[in-house]
Design a protein that fits this description.
It is a single chain. This protein has 311 residues and is an alpha/beta fold. The chain has 2 domains: 204 residues, Type I PLP-dependent aspartate aminotransferase-like (Major domain) (Aspartate Aminotransferase, domain 2); 95 residues, Aspartate Aminotransferase, domain 1 (Alpha-Beta Complex), CATH 3.90.1150.10. Helices cover 38% and strands 17% of the residues. The chain has 10 helices and 11 strands. The strands form 2 sheets. Strands 1-7-6-5-4-2-3 form a 7-stranded mixed sheet, sandwiched between helices. β8 and β9 form a beta hairpin. α8 packs parallel to α10. The N and C termini lie far apart (53 Å).
Length: 311
Protein backbone atom coordinates (compact mmCIF):
# COMPACT_ATOMS: atom_id res chain seq x y z
CA UNK A 1 0.00 0.00 0.00
CA UNK A 2 2.95 2.32 0.55
CA UNK A 3 4.10 1.60 -3.00
CA UNK A 4 0.60 2.21 -4.38
CA UNK A 5 0.50 5.65 -2.79
CA UNK A 6 4.06 6.89 -3.41
CA UNK A 7 6.80 7.17 -6.01
CA UNK A 8 8.39 3.91 -4.84
CA UNK A 9 8.52 0.38 -6.23
CA UNK A 10 10.00 -1.41 -3.21
CA UNK A 11 9.93 -1.13 0.59
CA UNK A 12 12.40 -2.42 3.16
CA UNK A 13 10.87 -2.68 6.64
CA UNK A 14 12.90 -2.21 9.81
CA UNK A 15 12.31 -1.04 13.39
CA UNK A 16 12.93 2.72 13.57
CA UNK A 17 13.70 5.90 11.69
CA UNK A 18 17.41 5.56 12.40
CA UNK A 19 17.39 2.06 10.92
CA UNK A 20 15.49 3.32 7.89
CA UNK A 21 18.06 6.07 7.35
CA UNK A 22 20.91 3.58 7.80
CA UNK A 23 19.32 1.47 5.08
CA UNK A 24 18.97 4.52 2.82
CA UNK A 25 22.64 5.47 3.23
CA UNK A 26 23.75 1.89 2.62
CA UNK A 27 21.56 1.50 -0.45
CA UNK A 28 22.81 4.75 -1.97
CA UNK A 29 26.44 3.80 -1.44
CA UNK A 30 25.99 0.23 -2.61
CA UNK A 31 24.16 1.29 -5.77
CA UNK A 32 26.82 3.84 -6.63
CA UNK A 33 29.64 1.41 -5.78
CA UNK A 34 28.16 -1.06 -8.24
CA UNK A 35 27.32 1.43 -10.98
CA UNK A 36 29.75 4.34 -10.64
CA UNK A 37 32.80 3.05 -8.84
CA UNK A 38 33.98 2.90 -5.24
CA UNK A 39 35.04 6.56 -5.00
CA UNK A 40 31.47 7.88 -5.42
CA UNK A 41 30.47 7.37 -1.80
CA UNK A 42 30.04 10.74 -0.05
CA UNK A 43 26.63 11.85 1.24
CA UNK A 44 25.76 15.54 1.47
CA UNK A 45 23.55 16.36 4.43
CA UNK A 46 22.24 19.68 5.76
CA UNK A 47 23.31 21.89 8.63
CA UNK A 48 20.91 21.54 11.60
CA UNK A 49 19.52 18.28 10.23
CA UNK A 50 18.65 15.24 12.33
CA UNK A 51 18.67 11.69 10.99
CA UNK A 52 19.13 9.41 14.01
CA UNK A 53 21.42 8.29 16.82
CA UNK A 54 23.23 5.26 15.36
CA UNK A 55 26.81 5.94 14.30
CA UNK A 56 26.02 6.40 10.60
CA UNK A 57 22.90 8.52 11.12
CA UNK A 58 24.65 10.50 13.85
CA UNK A 59 27.47 11.17 11.41
CA UNK A 60 24.86 12.32 8.87
CA UNK A 61 23.26 14.69 11.38
CA UNK A 62 24.15 18.38 11.15
CA UNK A 63 23.93 19.29 14.84
CA UNK A 64 27.04 19.48 16.98
CA UNK A 65 25.15 19.02 20.26
CA UNK A 66 23.93 15.59 19.14
CA UNK A 67 27.40 14.46 18.10
CA UNK A 68 29.32 15.61 21.18
CA UNK A 69 31.19 12.79 22.89
CA UNK A 70 30.99 10.24 20.07
CA UNK A 71 34.21 10.86 18.13
CA UNK A 72 35.49 9.48 15.88
CA UNK A 73 32.42 9.83 13.69
CA UNK A 74 32.16 8.04 10.37
CA UNK A 75 33.71 9.50 7.26
CA UNK A 76 31.92 10.20 4.01
CA UNK A 77 29.56 13.04 4.96
CA UNK A 78 29.61 16.72 3.94
CA UNK A 79 27.32 19.48 5.18
CA UNK A 80 25.80 22.51 3.49
CA UNK A 81 23.21 25.06 4.66
CA UNK A 82 19.54 24.19 4.18
CA UNK A 83 17.71 26.27 1.56
CA UNK A 84 21.01 27.16 -0.14
CA UNK A 85 21.16 25.84 -3.71
CA UNK A 86 24.38 27.72 -4.42
CA UNK A 87 26.07 26.08 -1.45
CA UNK A 88 24.85 22.67 -2.56
CA UNK A 89 26.10 23.19 -6.11
CA UNK A 90 29.51 24.28 -4.83
CA UNK A 91 29.76 21.15 -2.64
CA UNK A 92 29.19 18.83 -5.58
CA UNK A 93 32.12 16.81 -6.93
CA UNK A 94 32.78 13.37 -8.39
CA UNK A 95 32.65 11.71 -4.93
CA UNK A 96 29.03 12.63 -4.14
CA UNK A 97 26.64 9.67 -4.24
CA UNK A 98 23.56 11.19 -2.58
CA UNK A 99 21.94 14.22 -1.00
CA UNK A 100 20.04 13.50 2.22
CA UNK A 101 17.56 16.01 3.62
CA UNK A 102 14.30 16.49 5.50
CA UNK A 103 11.51 18.19 3.49
CA UNK A 104 10.90 20.13 6.70
CA UNK A 105 13.64 20.22 9.32
CA UNK A 106 11.95 19.17 12.56
CA UNK A 107 14.70 19.01 15.17
CA UNK A 108 16.35 21.93 13.40
CA UNK A 109 13.48 24.22 14.40
CA UNK A 110 10.64 23.49 11.95
CA UNK A 111 12.50 25.01 9.01
CA UNK A 112 10.50 24.85 5.78
CA UNK A 113 11.99 24.78 2.28
CA UNK A 114 11.78 27.81 0.05
CA UNK A 115 9.21 27.38 -2.74
CA UNK A 116 11.65 26.12 -5.41
CA UNK A 117 14.32 24.64 -3.13
CA UNK A 118 13.43 20.95 -3.40
CA UNK A 119 13.01 21.20 -7.17
CA UNK A 120 16.42 22.83 -7.32
CA UNK A 121 17.96 20.05 -5.24
CA UNK A 122 16.38 17.47 -7.54
CA UNK A 123 17.83 19.20 -10.59
CA UNK A 124 21.32 19.43 -9.06
CA UNK A 125 21.23 15.72 -8.16
CA UNK A 126 20.22 14.81 -11.71
CA UNK A 127 22.95 16.99 -13.21
CA UNK A 128 25.63 15.37 -11.05
CA UNK A 129 24.38 11.78 -11.25
CA UNK A 130 23.67 11.42 -7.55
CA UNK A 131 20.64 10.23 -5.62
CA UNK A 132 18.09 12.24 -3.65
CA UNK A 133 17.01 10.87 -0.26
CA UNK A 134 14.10 12.38 1.66
CA UNK A 135 13.96 11.68 5.39
CA UNK A 136 10.21 11.83 6.09
CA UNK A 137 10.41 10.09 9.45
CA UNK A 138 8.86 13.11 11.18
CA UNK A 139 6.88 14.76 8.38
CA UNK A 140 5.52 11.74 6.52
CA UNK A 141 2.25 9.86 7.06
CA UNK A 142 -0.11 12.82 6.78
CA UNK A 143 1.66 15.19 9.15
CA UNK A 144 1.85 18.08 6.64
CA UNK A 145 -1.66 17.72 5.20
CA UNK A 146 -0.57 15.33 2.47
CA UNK A 147 0.42 11.70 2.89
CA UNK A 148 4.05 12.60 2.18
CA UNK A 149 5.62 16.04 2.44
CA UNK A 150 7.34 15.81 -0.93
CA UNK A 151 3.91 15.89 -2.60
CA UNK A 152 3.60 19.61 -1.78
CA UNK A 153 6.54 20.41 -4.02
CA UNK A 154 6.06 18.34 -7.17
CA UNK A 155 9.37 16.55 -6.57
CA UNK A 156 10.03 12.85 -6.20
CA UNK A 157 13.07 11.41 -4.39
CA UNK A 158 14.94 8.23 -5.30
CA UNK A 159 14.75 6.99 -1.71
CA UNK A 160 12.47 7.94 1.20
CA UNK A 161 12.44 6.94 4.85
CA UNK A 162 9.47 6.65 7.20
CA UNK A 163 8.85 5.67 10.83
CA UNK A 164 7.13 7.23 13.88
CA UNK A 165 3.48 7.62 12.78
CA UNK A 166 3.78 4.63 10.45
CA UNK A 167 3.29 2.28 13.41
CA UNK A 168 1.05 4.56 15.50
CA UNK A 169 3.12 3.70 18.58
CA UNK A 170 4.58 0.35 17.58
CA UNK A 171 8.22 0.13 16.43
CA UNK A 172 8.51 0.16 12.65
CA UNK A 173 10.53 1.98 10.04
CA UNK A 174 10.53 1.79 6.27
CA UNK A 175 12.97 2.63 3.49
CA UNK A 176 11.29 3.07 0.11
CA UNK A 177 13.06 3.20 -3.24
CA UNK A 178 12.61 2.88 -6.97
CA UNK A 179 13.15 -0.55 -8.53
CA UNK A 180 16.52 0.18 -10.13
CA UNK A 181 18.07 1.07 -6.78
CA UNK A 182 16.38 -1.73 -4.88
CA UNK A 183 18.13 -4.29 -7.07
CA UNK A 184 21.41 -3.28 -5.44
CA UNK A 185 20.24 -4.94 -2.24
CA UNK A 186 20.72 -8.53 -3.32
CA UNK A 187 20.35 -11.54 -1.02
CA UNK A 188 22.41 -11.09 2.15
CA UNK A 189 23.40 -7.49 1.41
CA UNK A 190 21.15 -5.94 4.07
CA UNK A 191 18.78 -7.26 6.73
CA UNK A 192 17.31 -6.73 10.18
CA UNK A 193 16.05 -9.46 12.50
CA UNK A 194 12.70 -8.04 13.57
CA UNK A 195 11.89 -5.87 10.56
CA UNK A 196 8.50 -6.32 8.96
CA UNK A 197 6.99 -8.73 11.48
CA UNK A 198 3.32 -9.68 10.98
CA UNK A 199 2.11 -7.72 14.02
CA UNK A 200 3.67 -4.34 13.28
CA UNK A 201 3.00 -4.48 9.54
CA UNK A 202 -0.66 -5.37 10.16
CA UNK A 203 -0.97 -2.37 12.48
CA UNK A 204 0.83 -0.11 10.00
CA UNK A 205 -1.44 -1.25 7.20
CA UNK A 206 -4.47 -0.37 9.32
CA UNK A 207 -2.93 3.04 10.12
CA UNK A 208 -2.26 3.77 6.45
CA UNK A 209 -5.76 2.72 5.42
CA UNK A 210 -7.31 4.90 8.10
CA UNK A 211 -5.22 7.91 7.07
CA UNK A 212 -6.27 7.57 3.45
CA UNK A 213 -9.85 6.34 3.77
CA UNK A 214 -11.11 8.01 6.96
CA UNK A 215 -10.27 11.61 6.12
CA UNK A 216 -7.47 12.19 8.63
CA UNK A 217 -5.11 13.79 6.12
CA UNK A 218 -7.69 16.38 5.13
CA UNK A 219 -8.53 16.86 8.81
CA UNK A 220 -4.85 17.51 9.46
CA UNK A 221 -4.71 20.10 6.69
CA UNK A 222 -7.79 21.99 7.90
CA UNK A 223 -6.97 21.87 11.61
CA UNK A 224 -3.37 22.78 10.82
CA UNK A 225 -4.52 25.98 9.12
CA UNK A 226 -6.70 26.78 12.15
CA UNK A 227 -3.79 26.10 14.53
CA UNK A 228 -1.32 28.20 12.53
CA UNK A 229 -3.78 31.10 12.37
CA UNK A 230 -4.18 30.96 16.15
CA UNK A 231 -0.40 31.01 16.65
CA UNK A 232 -0.12 33.99 14.31
CA UNK A 233 -2.70 35.85 16.40
CA UNK A 234 -0.42 35.35 19.39
CA UNK A 235 2.44 36.70 17.28
CA UNK A 236 0.47 39.89 16.71
CA UNK A 237 0.01 40.22 20.47
CA UNK A 238 3.55 39.51 21.71
CA UNK A 239 6.57 41.20 20.15
CA UNK A 240 9.02 38.54 21.36
CA UNK A 241 7.53 36.08 18.85
CA UNK A 242 9.72 36.29 15.75
CA UNK A 243 8.03 33.85 13.35
CA UNK A 244 5.37 31.16 13.05
CA UNK A 245 6.13 28.52 10.42
CA UNK A 246 5.29 25.01 9.30
CA UNK A 247 2.43 23.26 7.56
CA UNK A 248 -0.29 20.86 8.58
CA UNK A 249 0.34 19.73 12.12
CA UNK A 250 4.07 20.33 12.30
CA UNK A 251 4.34 23.94 13.42
CA UNK A 252 7.03 26.04 15.02
CA UNK A 253 7.01 29.36 16.86
CA UNK A 254 10.40 31.05 17.00
CA UNK A 255 10.88 33.47 19.90
CA UNK A 256 13.73 35.73 20.97
CA UNK A 257 14.59 33.79 24.13
CA UNK A 258 15.12 30.20 25.37
CA UNK A 259 11.97 28.09 25.25
CA UNK A 260 12.65 25.71 28.14
CA UNK A 261 10.79 27.79 30.80
CA UNK A 262 7.74 28.00 28.50
CA UNK A 263 7.76 24.25 27.95
CA UNK A 264 7.87 23.72 31.71
CA UNK A 265 5.07 26.25 32.37
CA UNK A 266 2.84 24.61 29.76
CA UNK A 267 3.49 21.20 31.28
CA UNK A 268 2.29 22.54 34.64
CA UNK A 269 -0.94 23.52 32.86
CA UNK A 270 -1.32 20.01 31.43
CA UNK A 271 0.14 20.50 27.94
CA UNK A 272 3.20 18.76 26.56
CA UNK A 273 4.99 20.87 23.97
CA UNK A 274 8.55 20.70 22.76
CA UNK A 275 11.53 22.99 22.34
CA UNK A 276 13.60 22.60 19.18
CA UNK A 277 16.85 24.40 18.45
CA UNK A 278 16.62 26.15 21.86
CA UNK A 279 14.34 29.03 20.85
CA UNK A 280 11.61 27.36 18.77
CA UNK A 281 8.44 25.99 20.31
CA UNK A 282 7.55 22.93 18.24
CA UNK A 283 3.99 21.66 18.02
CA UNK A 284 3.34 18.09 16.85
CA UNK A 285 -0.13 17.16 18.11
CA UNK A 286 -1.78 13.88 17.13
CA UNK A 287 -3.54 14.08 13.79
CA UNK A 288 -6.89 13.56 15.54
CA UNK A 289 -6.56 16.80 17.52
CA UNK A 290 -9.69 18.96 17.53
CA UNK A 291 -10.15 22.72 17.26
CA UNK A 292 -11.45 22.79 20.84
CA UNK A 293 -8.26 21.15 22.07
CA UNK A 294 -6.17 23.61 20.08
CA UNK A 295 -8.13 26.47 21.68
CA UNK A 296 -7.31 25.08 25.12
CA UNK A 297 -3.61 25.00 24.28
CA UNK A 298 -3.63 28.50 22.79
CA UNK A 299 -5.32 29.84 25.94
CA UNK A 300 -2.69 28.16 28.10
CA UNK A 301 0.18 29.58 26.02
CA UNK A 302 -1.46 33.01 26.12
CA UNK A 303 -1.55 32.83 29.93
CA UNK A 304 2.11 31.78 30.06
CA UNK A 305 3.14 34.59 27.72
CA UNK A 306 1.12 37.13 29.74
CA UNK A 307 2.89 36.02 32.92
CA UNK A 308 6.23 36.40 31.12
CA UNK A 309 5.50 40.00 30.12
CA UNK A 310 4.31 40.90 33.64
CA UNK A 311 7.39 39.45 35.34
Amino acid sequence: MLVENSFADRVFFCNSGAEANEAAIKLARRYMNINSGTTKNTVISMDNSFHGRTMATLSATGQKKVKTGYNPLLEGFKFVPYNDLTGLEQAMDETICAVLLEPIQGEGGVVCPDPDYLKGVRNICDEHNCLLIFDEVQVGMGRTGKLFAYEHHGVQPDIMTLAKALGNGLPIGAMLSVEELAQAFGPGSHATTFGGTPLVTAVSLAVLRSLIEDGWIEHCRKVGIYFKDALNKLKQKYNFIKEVRGMGLILGMEIDRPCAPIVEACMEKGFLINCAHENVLRFLPPLIVTKDEIDMLINAIDEVFTDMTIT
